[in-house]
Amino acid sequence: MTDRSYYLMLAGLVLLALVLFILSLTVGTAGIGFFVSLKALFSWEDSLIGLVIHDIRLPRAILGLLVGATLGLSGAVLQGFLRNPLAEPGLIGVSASASLGAVLAIYTGFSAAFALGLPLAGLAGAFLAVLAVRAMAGASGSTLTLILAGVAVSSFAAAMTSLTLNLSPNPFTALEIMFWMMGSLSDRSMTHVWLAAPFIMAGWLSLFSLGRALDALTLGRDAAASMGIDLKGAQRRVVFGVAASVGAATAVSGAIGFVGLVVPHMLRPFTGSVPSRLLPASAIGGACMILAADVLVRFIAPGRDVKLGVLTAIVGAPFFLWLVYRTRRDML
Amino acid sequence: MTQTPLLATRNLTVHLAQRPVIDNLSLEICAGELVGLIGPNGAGKSTLLRSLAGLIPSAGDMTVSGRSGADLTLAERAALMAYVPQEHEIVWPMSVERLVGLGRVPHAGAFALRRGENDRRAVRQAMERMDVARFAARPATALSGGEKARVLIARALAQETPILIADEPAAGLDPAHQIALMRTFRSLAAEGRAVVATLHDLGLAARWCTRLVLLNNGVIAADGLPQEVLTEKTMADVYGIRAYFGTAAGGPVVQILDVADQAEETSGAN
Predict the structure, then answer these.
(1) Which residue of B has its CA nearest to A272?
(2) Which residues from B are below 8 Å from A205, CB to CB?
(3) 8 Å CB contact of A277 and B113
(4) Residue B155, SS3 per DSSP
(5) Inter-chain CB proximity A212 and B108 less than 8 Å
(6) Is the CB of residue B113 less than 8 Å away from at least one CB of chain A?
(7) Which of A208, A212, A272 lies closest to B98 in CB terms?
């Protein structure tokens, strides 16, 4: 893989993301024409079309971009850091805990009483998960304790979520919780964007700074340390970066599976398997996948509101199966 | 020796699982030396190398290039010494050239993706020295065990450090590449660097190292020129073996013959 073909691929992905972003602004149940939508985007006149574009579709597209890039990037970082192609953003327990926070907000009525109650509760859940994981795995710096702590936190959060569902006072609350957990970007406002964006950006910064460490880790922990990589510091940056970005993303969109697992796999061959090069590619690729899926749910069943997380799982799982099949064939 | 050692330990002690694996070990290694670290299984060879590389905590003093080991940051240490682990771990199917290029990681900034002319020269030179340049574009994971070993040594050579520490670098190499490896180490030493390598092949160690350190139960059992360290007594006491010692083509030759007590039985039968 030469430098040139790598940068060409990055440019291609950026172009694709741009096209999908525009598509996301111009496709929807309101049935507004393509050029009318674009014109409304750049005008600030009070009109119904302007309202739809600015207040409904624009936040949805921006969140798609942010959430997708977060999932792709953190998946690539975790696979590189744990040197395991099966790692995914939910591994350290942040997604499950953010979900639990949000579910509790729905259950208690906090989300109905206060517009930002749900994402704030999600963020609080993610924050608590990090404290727990850090308390258990912080000192040793071993990746095994990190994974075990993540599994423990995830299982506990999942159990508490089940308990909440179990105890929900009426079927409507239970249904609301179920639907929220499927993961979606519909009916989000610019306030959601402003709430999540700072955490997501801070997380990205932390994750993007890991490129050199991930490259060195290709040769194992001892070799990486002998090349001057501070493994404990790297683990801190991984946990903070994933927690801040994935926690905030889950808090606004719900848990969206498979993107963080599949996208790094798809793009790794195009980066010469160099972990640092996979980071930007996987981030943009994740954004493309979420934006595409979010446009697709509007086409498949207009008006039925098919959840984004359901679609990514339906498409992602067979695709992953195919990847496993192909990898197995390559190994034989 | 009057020159200041590149690498020195005084009363180095390393505990693993509450057991002392290296016990009060003092060692000085100077520029120009190719030190073969030998000893039976469990003698503490790998542990000594890992503590010298700063990968495991140790008690006692260590100086690297005249500086206290405790004061060195990881990055500073990486500029002074390269380390080749015993395990040939390569996770991703990266090309050989990129993998060798990882040796330049200590010399790059956090976000650096592009490499300079000096980096390219170091990588090219390292690949040529280990005879891996001809499969520069192949994925490193698809190579044979011996080829992988050479690629990983080339990676450490690309780091261009005054000190090179290698754990079992000759394991898995064919005879020609073993000799090429020892010749490369000798020329690195001649350039004024210090090379420390654990070796299991005593014949190879005897013939190519400028100095041997025989480790047994975490202490130095013998230290000096190969012919001073490899004697009938040390072979019997430390390894429990009997060997043939000779000279050929201007260098010492060691060939292991039998296990020590087995030898007595044989001589008794005769």
Answers:
(1) B94
(2) none
(3) yes
(4) helix
(5) yes
(6) yes
(7) A272
Given a contact cutoff of 8 angstroms between Cβ atoms, the answer to whether B61 and B9 are in contact is yes
CB B196 within 8 A of CB B7: yes
Q: Could you list the pLDDT tens digit for every one of the 332 residues in chain A? A: 578 889 999 999 999 999 999 999 888 777 777 777 777 777 777 777 877 888 888 999 999 999 999 999 999 999 999 998 888 888 889 999 999 999 999 998 888 888 788 889 999 999 899 888 888 876 666 888 888 889 999 999 999 999 999 998 888 888 888 888 888 888 888 888 999 999 999 999 999 999 999 999 999 999 999 999 999 899 989 999 999 999 999 999 998 988 999 999 999 999 999 999 999 999 999 999 999 999 998 888 777 778 899 999 888 888 888 877 877 765 54
Residues 224-263 of chain A with CB under 8 A from chain B are 225-230
| B139 DSSP β-pair partners | B95
A 92-121 residues inside an 8 A Cβ radius of B: none
Predicted-complex ipTM score: 0.88
DSSP state, B114?
S
How many A/B residue pairs have CB atoms within 8 Å?
94
Q: Is A273 on the interface with B (CB under 8 A)?
A: yes
The CA–CA distances, whole Å, from B55 to B48, B70, B161, B166 equal 10, 12, 17, 13
> Considering only alpha carbons, which residue of chain A is nearest residue B165?
A226
Characterise A108 by phi-psi region: left (phi > 0), alpha (psi -120 to 50), beta (else): alpha
Q: How many CB atoms lie within 10 A of CB B191?
A: 10
Q: Is some CB atom of chain B closer than 8 A to the CB atom of A209? A: yes
